[in-house]
Amino acid sequence: MLDKTKKCPFCAEDINENAIKCKHCGSDLNNNDSKDVKASNHPNFISFSIICFLIPIIGLILGMVYLTKNSALDKKLGEHCISFSILMTILIAVVYFVYMMLSSGLI
């Protein structure tokens, strides 16, 4: 008899559809919805946030790569990288604009 399987919402590995805990990543499947996944739970969250802060274009690339992964946790990290990189790009543009206005004597 073949057991029916489903994908773990956290690591995207095949598991028994009645599983309460993933045998691959150890995630609790009872109370967790893939909507409740937080990017801050990803092991690379801090390092990727720093990269997005310092070099937003690399953060955008990392975000696009991670959005294509199967894991819900990876997708959340991809969303975080993209949004943080866009925010930093806007902040850099505003600071540059104010600096140029101040240096040219327009303000």
- Globally, the shape reads rod-shaped
User: How many domain units?
Assistant: 2
Fraction of residues in H or I helices: 40-55%
Percent strand equals 5-15%
Overall pLDDT, averaged?
87
- Low-pLDDT stretches are none
Brief description of this entry?
The protein has three helices and two strands. It has 107 residues and is mainly α.
Provide an overview of this structure:
By secondary structure, this protein is mainly alpha-helical. It folds into two domains: 34 residues, no CATH class; 71 residues. 50% of the residues lie in helices and 6% in strands. It has three helices and two strands. It has a two-stranded antiparallel ribbon with strand order 1-2. Strand 1 and strand 2 form a beta hairpin. Helix 2 runs antiparallel to helix 3. The longest helix is centred in the last third of the chain and has 32 residues. The radius of gyration is 20 Å and the shape is rod-shaped.
What's the SSE blueprint?
Blueprint: E1 5-7, E2 14-16, H1 45-54, H2 56-67, H3 72-103
Antiparallel strand pairs: 1-2
Helix pairs in contact: 1-2, 1-3, 2-3
Based on the model shown, name its key terms.
single chain, 107 residues, mainly alpha, 2 domains, two-stranded antiparallel ribbon, 2 strands, rod-shaped
